């Protein structure tokens, strides 16, 4: 085969060390929806969410569609002195990238557009590979590591609170109506939480590491 | 929900083992690369304290211009004003939105300062071997990892206001340099929190026990 395995380290699959405190445990089979916790520090060692691949895939696809919709559809409609303007999140991010303080636009574009899009795309890819057991998809390990790393940097939820605060700040200056993208965004936050709650990373790692 | 795990009563390192930082698979300490996820294997994150110090100092330094420089400039017919983080909070409170003012104050002032103090406390404890309860230190670390990203609220507020209010001659809001410094401060304190290897908090105590 065209897959030169140089040196493959032997892992102790029956053992698990707590990633927060290094305490060593012998792995036990979990019932569906159970979580194994460290006896010393109490952090979660691994979980056994039922149908983790199917459910994570479903949530990742739903989140991806909702994200595309919330970025492009009108998020807010601003009315002031007879002028109405629709604004989408993508328009807003772009206008900031080309403003005097471009760096703010770059930050915002990364945190609510690029990072969430990348993370969801990688998740979909990894789940499809795991579900259909494609064996030659070499970037799958790299993709899953990156998807997990990006999790805290996808800030759809923080952005929503920021939007609510902004609306309260300017409600005396202008009349604002909430557009369809706002509700898609709320749905996106819900499906992203559902994604995390259905993902058993350890199960996925075992599935994608033995093609 | 949680099942009873059989603990061996030692750490992985005590037995000459190391678990992968990325996926958690367990290997002998002599291995250098995880076969399951391809990440480099280390018993503890390399240079954890040095990296935490570096990120934390950048985060603290960036927090100074974040508070001194304006985060937002407002221009209207015949006038203009600049807001800093604190004057924005005060303006919100004076306009009657006390709860929202409190949210912004907690996100922009309380959480960052709390993070600086906790991270500083954790790394100083590790360096000088101060004796605290490792469980409490662990909880403090989990807390700052959880709340850290919520500091970004003010960054999004300024971004949304600046993007929305561009009505030209009547009124315009532009972002100020302070908000970039603030965003950098939040990013670097988040990196500092992740750079801390919590295993070190538990190691420290066992040497003296």
Please tell me about this protein's structure.
The complex is a heterodimer of chains A (211) and B (209). Chain A has 211 residues and is of the alpha+beta class. Helix content of chain A is 54%, strand content 13%. Chain A contains 7 helices and 7 strands, in the order ββββαββααααβαα. Chain A has a 3-stranded antiparallel sheet with strand order 6-5-7. In chain A, strands 1-2 form a two-stranded antiparallel sheet. Chain A is elongated, with a radius of gyration of 21 Å. The two termini of chain A are 13 Å apart. Chain B has 2 domains: 1-43; 46-208, Up-down Bundle (Butyryl-CoA Dehydrogenase, subunit A, domain 3), CATH 1.20.140. Chain B is built from 7 helices and 7 strands; from the N terminus they run ββββαββααααβαα. In chain B, β3 (17-19) and β4 form a beta hairpin. In chain B, α3 crosses α4. The two termini of chain B are 32 Å apart. In chain B, 43% of the residues are buried. The chains are: A alpha+beta (211), B alpha+beta (209). β2 of chain A pairs antiparallel with β2 of chain B.
């Amino acid at each position: 085969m065209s897959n030169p395995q140089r040196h493959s380290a032997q892992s102790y699959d029956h053992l698990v060390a707590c990633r927060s405190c290094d305490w060593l445990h012998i792995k036990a089979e979990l019932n569906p929806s159970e979580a194994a916790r460290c006896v010393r520090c109490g952090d979660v060692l691994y979980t056994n969410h039922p149908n983790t691949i199917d459910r994570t895939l479903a949530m990742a696809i739903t989140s991806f569609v909702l994200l595309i919709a919330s970025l492009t559809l009108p998020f807010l409609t601003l009315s002031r002195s007879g002028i109405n303007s629709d604004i989408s999140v993508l328009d807003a991010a772009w206008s900031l990238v080309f403003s005097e303080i471009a760096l703010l636009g770059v930050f915002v574009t990364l945190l609510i557009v690029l990072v969430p899009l990348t993370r969801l795309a990688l998740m979909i890819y990894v789940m499809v590979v795991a579900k259909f057991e494609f064996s030659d998809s070499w970037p799958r390990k790299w993709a899953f590591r990156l998807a997990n790393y990006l999790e805290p940097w996808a800030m759809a939820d923080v952005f929503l609170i920021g939007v609510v605060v902004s609306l309260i700040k300017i409600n005396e200056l202008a009349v604002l109506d909430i557009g369809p993208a706002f509700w898609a965004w709320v749905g996106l936050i819900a499906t992203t939480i559902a994604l995390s709650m259905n993902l058993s990373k350890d199960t996925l790692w075992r599935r994608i590491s033995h093609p | 929900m949680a099942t009873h795990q059989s603990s061996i009563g030692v750490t992985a390192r005590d037995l000459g083992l190391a678990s992968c930082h990325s996926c958690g698979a367990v290997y002998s300490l002599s291995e250098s690369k995880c076969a399951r996820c391809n990440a480099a294997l280390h018993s503890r994150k390399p240079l954890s304290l040095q990296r935490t110090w570096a990120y934390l100092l950048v985060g603290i330094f960036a927090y100074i211009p974040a508070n001194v420089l304006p985060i937002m400039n407002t221009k209207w017919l015949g006038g203009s004003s600049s807001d800093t983080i604190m004057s924005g909070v005060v303006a919100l409170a004076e306009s009657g939105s006390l709860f929202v003012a409190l949210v912004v104050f907690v996100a922009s002032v309380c959480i960052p300062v709390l993070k600086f103090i906790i991270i500083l406390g954790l790394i100083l404890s590790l360096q000088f071997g101060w004796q605290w309860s490792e469980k409490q230190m662990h909880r403090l670390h989990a807390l700052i990892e959880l709340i850290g990203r919520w500091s970004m609220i003010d960054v999004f507020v300024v971004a949304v206001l600046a993007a929305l209010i561009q009505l030209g001659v009547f009124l315009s809001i532009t972002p100020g340099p302070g908000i970039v410094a603030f965003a950098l401060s939040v990013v670097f304190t988040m990196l500092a929190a992740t750079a801390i290897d919590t295993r070190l908090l538990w190691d420290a105590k066992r040497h003296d026990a």
